[in-house]
Design brief:
Largest interface: A-B, 37 and 45 residues
Shape of chain A: elongated
Oligomer: homotrimer
Strand content of chain A: 15-25%
Number of strands of chain A: 18
Largest sheet of chain A: 8 strands, parallel
Chain lengths: 433, 433, 433
């Protein structure tokens, strides 16, 4: 059985750059520029794109560009490099082209293969189509004297057939006639998926496809792969990109496709815990972040108002008015409040739980307290959350991700230290091990 | 391997009509009336219903009514005809009845089979149950000297088992012991599905079942079938029916069950692009369509307000106030606006992209500009969207649907020309080919 | 083929209690107290928990506690008893421990097995892992001279692999080498599932996982099992617990994990129809329950207002104003209103439909009428809903659930009679049979 070789546990960013255009050499410049990205602007996985981003007539030239640029810059590039080649479940000709370009790029005589971590195969169909691609990886490795499984295979899920194939991976991997253990990223490709599903929206915008993203995340979980969401087209809409990533992360999909170095920066930071904790107040269906002033959390919106009366308080949320005494008020606010812990907070809580476990206790209460000010009135709130082993492990995910980043991306150490402080970074790299 | 014979690529409407009632012959009239529907009132697929819409004791009479009406009117009916027979995964007796009625209706001596395109099988279970139905189709075709696969088989998905079976179609089709290539429509049946899933809602209304609809759409995509949503019971609620169809279309389910000729009209038009484009403004979680007055797009709601000040503008959305200069205002509005293109717009954009491709360019910017008026103040906004081959193909779906309608439904040509103009219809039938 | 033995058709509550703690014997008390719960405080399924709720070092003592308490109190406990043992898809050692503890607890010499209905296996993986657990059940039954299949097996779905395994149950059950027909509950475990899926939320709260719950419900439907949702951690948040249960029930998941006797009471009552019907008015995206005063349904919110004018009415919903005549007003209100039927109402409607069916009619209209008062103005509204056999059967689910409760939980008869009246209880136990 082929051994798994890829060492990343998380991939935050999947960044495609074009490799050739007709006429001018803009994209030859773009691939060269991509190869020189560093720090937060550099993706975890860089995908020199010899498929959609390169005109069909320029793909041979594009493959040569990839070889040239990867040979020259690959050794210094801080992320992994996985070129995308052409492939289509319905076209043997396209598949043959994809095979030939991979064979070419992986040729040791051309100097790029030492820096290539794998290839990305788009437009796959059912599992047997995935096996055809895997077969070409086997041949390429054999022809070029590379170790079996040394080239990772990532796929773009952009058909209903491919979505269905993911559920079979766990059963198919490890069979003697394939080396599907080389599978690395399962990347959603919503534009072509929308076409394949023949979906229509009034504005021509992409449907949200929540079920596809769930199924990709689940498929990755069950088969030891990593799930990555597709591109977010509106590159000016930073807030929308963040909302999409938050939604993805709640589905277990911590990576996303990035179209620009600006998107790479956002996506590299998004799954990391914030440097500062914050309180959120949910009122009338919306969440508002409170502002910290001298240690007091201040609500500045106008959906919620608070008034002191002779015998207690009147709390107004939207059009609902409640008359409450002091304890009831604190309880009511507690229901409306939630806390977003900082990296420091998470590390603190984990350390506290570890110490308790060491001392023989299986569960502890982690307390969060705050003074909240609404319309000038201050209220003390305090919340206990029970932590047991399961809580500890579920909360650990962002820390594990951080540690994976820290191990594989020394070029980001400086940015991380600046974001969190040296001390927090050091404790975060050690906790939970 | 059995060849696929059904030629429709899209089915907008699945219209069931009862075939017999006890006592009076109301439903004998209803089936006769259904057979004479034309134009937008006529469905793409007409389903004379010998199951739920016919009392158990009247089903033999109902089958005879179908034979009579289809023999008489079938040649002139503009859509396809697929009677529904009885079937149940748990009852061999019911399945045998379904078989016998299909055998009867398909008997060439009875004159109806020339106009029958297939049968609809309700209440299927796992894939082996689907194969039992397919076996009866094989026998019927052999007994009656019909070509193998000439009768399409459609199924109603109304159990968890049937939902699970859809994912296997791609693997099972083409095996030597079945002729499942005859599969045509995968139709959700939410009333019985709700029963099978044992779901409860407070009002007794149907749950929305978004995952079922996704899985049906995906199953259709992976197996070359067509997905159709179940009935919308509240036939007075036209707005709700439209919202359901819009939601379905974003899932790749462009067809829906219709219970009345009025619903057929709505459902036939729903997936077609509008005759006029329109701008939508999203404010405070709601979308409002702007009104066009002398080429200006006017906002008439009161969630958004705009005021000019000495040094710029104040834009108020709900309770949020922003102070902006002219460029910032245009940017902010652009984020809130989206454009619903007309058929004409889509054809224009496709032609523009085709010309660019012809000229050797792989991507172009499609611009939409408008003058928007809020509280008497006019703002120029303009948006570029990058189109590449993938965009082009994803946007093409409504055009492909239109072309499918145009090819198969000459009885709707007049309505379409009236809706869009002769010129737009002609260009829309030619673009993309 | 092993026969199915478990007789419950629905399980509302899955209540875990710890079985041992280190040092003090608090949890020995807790298990003893749990064994003595009765009526609405007693769960349908009680799970003495020898996994997460018991510290690793105390699990042998915990297993002994279970044997002691079940031997002593099991005969009188009104629900089923299914202890949870340790298991993990990735650890043969853990699985071996789980096996040994089950073997011990099921030993007839220890006196508990007569009151044990089965065991709960957490942390299962793919279907082959489920079969390993099933194999241990087979061995235990054979070793102890118990009838094959007499011990039910329930599993906790807390990995992507287990989620995928559920879809295979229908195909795997009944194969000669397993006795998976013993499967009883499919219970979601969202904390560990979140960890396995590596999902992240800003606050550390659990993602909603709608697709998992759908898939569990569907898996149960297709394989004749019962779906149960995981724990709701915030035990103070009764409203949130109710919303979660309502959402689950619309997915066909009528059972939920309960962490306290208080949650058991809420969860036991939640899927039962209310004692009193009520009207809901949906306005501006929110539903408000109307207050009944002297037979009139009164709206007391301020999102909707109504005014009489010289020539009709002005209905204002949020910021939308409509001028309507009397009939239009009634129609408009009807669209906004929905009725939540009481147990009595449902029984009435079912009896009415049964009588009609007896008299040879396949469909009838069930009418709901009310006088609604808004801003002092009274409006008569009346709604007909068509009932056919499918409606009847879909609406029957809460009655079937009630009948299942009534049959298996004599200790709740008094509570039910108090809630609904003796008369309604009697009619509800008889209708539909």
């Amino acid at each position: 059985m082929t051994e798994r070789r890829h060492t990343r546990k998380f991939v935050r960013t999947f960044f495609t750059s074009p490799t050739a255009v007709e006429g001018e050499d803009d994209s030859a410049k773009m691939i060269r520029r991509a190869a020189q990205l560093r720090g937060m602007e550099a993706p975890d996985v860089w995908v020199p794109d010899n498929e959609d981003a390169t005109a069909p007539s320029m793909r041979d030239e594009g493959a040569q560009n990839i070889i040239d640029v990867v040979s020259e810059h690959g050794a210094d590039f801080p992320g992994e490099i996985h070129p995308r080649v052409v492939w289509h479940r319905d076209s043997p000709t396209t598949r043959h082209q994809g095979f030939q370009r991979m064979l070419e790029m992986a040729d040791p005589d051309h100097g790029a293969v030492d820096h290539l971590d794998g290839f990305v195969i788009p437009e796959v169909g059912g599992i047997d189509d995935w096996k055809k691609a895997d077969e070409f990886f086997q041949i390429i490795e054999a022809e070029h004297g590379l170790e079996e499984g040394s080239l990772a295979m990532s796929v773009i899920i952009e058909s209903g057939a491919a979505e269905l194939a993911m559920r079979k991976l766990r059963d198919e991997m490890g069979k003697p006639d394939n080396t599907l253990e080389r599978l690395f990223l399962l990347v959603d490709g919503e534009v072509d998926y929308t076409k394949d599903m023949r979906a229509i929206t009034p504005t021509g915008g992409l449907p949200p496809w929540p079920e596809l993203r769930h199924n990709t995340s689940r498929g990755a979980s069950a088969a030891g792969c990593i799930a990555v969401d597709g591109p977010y087209d509106d590159i000016r809409d930073v807030e929308g990109y963040h909302e999409r990533m938050t939604d993805n992360q709640a589905k277990g999909m911590t990576g996303i496709w990035s179209l620009t170095p600006g998107q790479v920066v956002e996506a590299n930071k998004s799954p990391l815990p914030p440097a500062e904790g914050s309180w959120l107040l949910e009122a009338d269906g919306r969440e508002v972040e409170l502002t910290t002033e001298d240690g007091v959390e201040v609500y500045e919106g106008d959906r919620v108002s608070l008034e002191e009366t002779a015998d207690g308080y009147v709390l107004t949320v939207g059009s609902d008015e409640q008359h409450l005494d002091e304890d009831e008020l604190a309880d009511e606010l507690l229901d409306m409040l939630s806390y977003v812990p900082s990296m420091d907070d998470i590390v603190d809580s984990m350390e506290e739980f570890e110490a308790a476990k060491e001392a023989g206790r299986g569960a502890i209460a982690i307390t969060r307290a705050a003074t909240v000010r609404i319309d000038g009135i201050e209220v003390e709130v305090s919340n206990d959350r029970m932590w047991d082993e399961a809580t500890y492990q579920a909360v650990q995910t962002p820390i594990t991700l951080f540690q994976d980043v820290y191990e594989h991306r020394p070029d980001q150490h400086e940015d991380l230290a600046e974001l969190y402080s040296e001390d927090v970074v050091e404790r975060a790299t050690n906790v939970g091990n």
